[in-house]
């Protein structure tokens, strides 16, 4: 792999994060927007098409994907020990012998963040001391969000106090399903204020929003209310991240940028476990938003098992058994 390819992976990780100040609630901006499902699905299908790309570029893109992972554990059997092990992996996500084999030496490569439940924030903060890896905490009654607003706000403030610098909030799906866009805006804005200096990612739970038009409108409202990232799913819905949901959301991000000049990040999450899928998402970001969004400051995968497959594919890449099914047009 060339020096410029490997330094690209490291330098994107050191950029300052973007912030979104939000804007006044204005339903006129999105009310007329309707999403054509079949057009979106046709476009999504093209992202999954196989084409070949030079093996060196493939490895560089997989390393970039690693730097964009929110390495996640959100399970009932999470323990302090499990979170400490995850943080160790976050510090050195790819085995040194693989990096040496790729010719990139000591890249200083880490994942984008470690994402945990509220009660394990302190453990993760301690285990990541001395690194610049942020701790992300899921909040506001994750995953369903079915608790009172005061409890949600208290949870956000508490997570920040415990050391989380990224807060993944869940929106109230009922506000979307009943068309209460102003209610959604003021709720998310209150979360934004409770986050203080922490970054806020708003989880739409797209699989529970009934229509792609709702996904587009909810994306707009969350961005207007000051979300730094919009995120598809909790990983707990029946349908989580998909390319059609992603297309709708990144196009809303593109249009919000055109209107406000502000870059909002994107986080597909839930069920993304294969290197090939990661490449499809990177391709989507590059095609729809441009290279600027191919950075952990503006793009994250929420994933608990993706890193393992990427590491396996990088290893296969070295041994020459990198499978044709993983070739994909990402450069
Ligand atoms: O936010 C992240 C998701 O909960 C992770 O979902 P996953 O376990 O399907 O990768």
Automatic annotation (TrEMBL):
Q: Which transformation does this protein catalyse, written as a reaction? A: 2-deoxy-D-ribose 5-phosphate = D-glyceraldehyde 3-phosphate + acetaldehyde
Task: Spell out the CDD domains in the cross-references.
Answer: DeoC
What EC number(s) are associated with this protein in UniProt? 4.1.2.4
Provide the transmembrane region boundaries: none
Instruction: Give a GO molecular function annotation for the protein.
Output: deoxyribose-phosphate aldolase activity
What's any GO biological process attached to this entry?
Answer: carbohydrate catabolic process
Q: Which domain of life is it from?
A: Bacteria
* Pathway listed: Carbohydrate degradation; 2-deoxy-D-ribose 1-phosphate degradation; D-glyceraldehyde 3-phosphate and acetaldehyde from 2-deoxy-alpha-D-ribose 1-phosphate: step 2/2
Q: Which UniProt keywords apply?
A: Lyase, Schiff base
Record-linked Gene3D superfamilies? Aldolase class I
GO CC list: cytoplasm
User: Does the entry feature the keyword Nucleotide-binding, yes or no?
Assistant: no
The answer to whether keyword Lyase applies is yes
Ranges for region Disordered: 1-23
Comp. bias (Polar residues): 1-11
Q: Which family does the UniProt entry place this protein in?
A: Belongs to the DeoC/FbaB aldolase family. DeoC type 2 subfamily.
Q: What is this protein called?
A: Deoxyribose-phosphate aldolase
Annotated source species: Elongatibacter sediminis
Q: Top-down, what is the taxonomic lineage of the species of origin?
A: Bacteria, Pseudomonadati, Pseudomonadota, Gammaproteobacteria, Chromatiales
């Amino acid at each position: 792999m060339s020096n410029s390819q490997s330094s690209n992976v490291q330098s994107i990780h050191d950029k300052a994060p973007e912030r979104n100040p939000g804007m006044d609630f204005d339903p006129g901006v999105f009310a007329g927007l309707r999403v054509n499902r079949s057009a979106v699905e046709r476009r999504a299908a093209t992202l999954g098409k196989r084409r070949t790309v030079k093996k060196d570029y493939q490895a560089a893109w997989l390393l970039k994907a690693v730097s964009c992972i929110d390495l996640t554990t959100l399970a009932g059997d999470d323990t302090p020990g499990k979170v400490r092990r995850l943080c160790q992996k976050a510090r050195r996500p790819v085995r040194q012998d693989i990096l040496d084999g790729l010719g990139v030496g000591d890249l200083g490569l880490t994942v984008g963040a470690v994402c945990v439940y509220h009660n394990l924030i302190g453990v993760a903060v301690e285990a990541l001391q001395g690194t610049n890896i942020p701790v992300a905490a899921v909040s506001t009654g994750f995953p369903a969000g079915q608790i009172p607003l005061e409890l949600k706000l208290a949870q956000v403030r508490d997570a920040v106090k415990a050391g989380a610098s990224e807060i993944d909030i869940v929106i109230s799906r009922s506000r979307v399903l009943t068309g209460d866009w102003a209610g959604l805006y003021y709720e998310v804005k209150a979360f934004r204020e409770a986050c203080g200096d922490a970054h806020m990612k708003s989880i739409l739970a797209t699989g529970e929003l009934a229509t792609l038009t709702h996904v587009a409108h909810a994306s707009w409202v969350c961005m207007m209310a000051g979300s730094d990232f919009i995120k598809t799913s909790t990983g707990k819905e029946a349908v989580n991240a998909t390319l059609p949901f992603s297309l709708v959301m990144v196009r809303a991000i593109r249009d919000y940028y055109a209107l406000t000049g502000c870059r909002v990040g994107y986080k597909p999450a839930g069920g993304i476990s294969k290197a090939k899928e990661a490449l499809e998402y990177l391709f989507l970001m590059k095609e729809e938003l441009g290279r600027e969004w191919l950075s952990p400051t503006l793009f994250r995968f929420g994933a608990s098992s993706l890193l393992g497959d990427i590491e396996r594919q990088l290893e296969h890449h070295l041994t020459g058994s990198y499978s044709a099914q993983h070739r994909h047009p990402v450069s």
